[in-house]
Amino acid sequence: MKRYLFTFCFLFVFIAVSAQNNCVNYSFEILDQDVQSHSASHVQFQYSEIAQPNHLSTWIISKLKANQDFYLKIIDSNTDIVGNKHFRFKQYYKDIVVDGATINLHYKGEKPFSFNGVYYPNLELDLSTSISVQEALEIAKKSFPQNSIFGWEKTALAYLLIRA
Questions:
Q1: Where are the beta strands (DSSP E) in the chain?
Q2: Cα–Cα distance measured from residue 13 to residue 23, given in angstroms and rounded to the nearest whole number
Q3: Rounded mean pLDDT of 38-51?
Q4: Are the C-beta atoms of residues 121 and 64 closer than 8 Å to each other?
Q5: Secondary structure of the chain: what % helix, strand, coil (to 5)?
């Protein structure tokens, strides 16, 4: 009987230690991946490494290997009826918002639990300009009918007053 009790206790301790080691080695789990960007679109945390919501950018750079120009800004937050917090982020690349890239970070109680959304972790874009602002404006104006009136032109105010 003592032998069985010893074996049971040994197995219990072994399983408990193994479970703790698994939590340390695997701090997050990728549950889904975006087909177009090949980035993790739903990530669940095993335990929290994100002390504050604004640390999510740094975490994604270090754990999911996003490039150094990747960063997120909080655009909205709310608390649901059970008290869980949710933060919505927009992705930026070199101070320019990435259209369509939005991440939602979810908290259970005071700890981050998961995030989901669309983001592009490895953008490599040349953002240098090769034409002047005036040249770009002239190109844009050519896409409108010839006699178009634009709101920034002096004639636009007179036109709007006549139509009112």
A1: 28-33, 40-45, 70-79, 85-93, 96-108, 111-118
A2: 16
A3: 72
A4: yes
A5: 35, 30, 35
